[in-house]
Amino acid sequence: MESRLSAKGAYNIAMCIEGKQLSSTELSEKLISAAVSGYSTVNFIIGSSFGMSEEIKKAADLRLSMSKMTFPHQLARIMLLEQVYRAFRIAKGSRYHK
User: pTM to 2 decimals?
Assistant: First the structure.
């Protein structure tokens, strides 16, 4: 059975509470590493208020947690967007993240 996350060239990150917590610098390093490894796309999968299926979590390349706390879906999207922006600024050598 082919996974729904098997898009060619995509690095899939499952956003789930039991995932690994990374600093902004560590997230930047993960994204750089994914790009250097040949991934052309990064997918962030945010679960619903009911969580995320084990199938999706197992198929993901990384399980990432923003916090042990629970956030509304829309707020999690904004927070994640800011962290991705911050990660690219860090990769560029900008002082934005300080």
Answer: 0.85
